[in-house]
Amino acid sequence: MTDEIFARDAEADARAFYLQRAFRAVLDAMARPGEVTEIEPVAQGDPADAAAAGLTSAALVVGDVVLDAATTVAVAGPAGARAASVIARRTHARPRALAQAAFCFVPEDVRGSAAAEAICALNPGTLIDPQLGATAIVGCRTLMGLDRAGVRTGAVAGADEASTWELTGPGIKDRALITLDRTDVMDARAARGDEFPCGIDCILVDGAGHLIALPRTTRARRVDGASAMAEGGLAWAM
Fold this sequence. Notes:
With 238 residues, the protein is an alpha/beta fold. It has one domain (10-235): Bacterial phosphonate metabolism protein PhnH (Rossmann fold, 3-Layer(aba) Sandwich). It contains 6 helices and 14 strands. The chain has helices at 10-31, 49-53, 57-66, 80-91, 113-121, 183-192; strands spanning 37-38, 72-75, 94-95, 103-106, 135-140, 143-146, 152-155, 163-168, 172-173, 176-180, 201-206, 210-214, 219-223, 234-235. The strands form 3 sheets. Strands 1-12-11-5-4-2-3 form a 7-stranded mixed β-sheet, with helices on both faces. Strands 7-6-10-8-13 form a 5-stranded antiparallel β-sheet, covered by helices on one side. α4 (80-91) links the parallel β2 (72-75) and β3. α5 (113-121) runs parallel beside α6.
């Protein structure tokens, strides 16, 4: 009997490591709400996919790790159907209407009422099956917070007005403070009025690969003044 040795596939290895790194970053972010983690800002595969879907490359990295043939996806905005078809071709996720999708992208260029309507339309799950609540992947131009070392990090870009939010809830010691330019999304999330265990999860991601997660159990309150960020507040390891 002879052993059959197969050569390693460098391309397959690179894909596996890419997905593992992204999965770990998303998992860490969900476990530490309000804490800034980082993902690769450049998605593997066809470089034209991000532009065709109206997403930043970093947002597409999140899609690569959370979407597969067993999930469903929607994209907010007037070009949502076309964008969802691009993502479906890439990830094999099935396009659905906003209210039926397990995952919804809100591109950074989709703002105001279009973004708010998408957030309000998402499925919150049910008391029996709260895990059916949707996840929104929201593109930001400005996204700031504290990383695990307590260092303020993130990105500030664009002319959109930013707001600061105080986060409390499971996985957060005392409070966490974040600043972002998606008041439309944050206000719509609050307006939903979901009651635990129902609700939606949000993953905020900017073009540089900074990522902050807001699980459905995280409560957010808008606070005024740039000085609020200097007061601290850091998610803690669970």
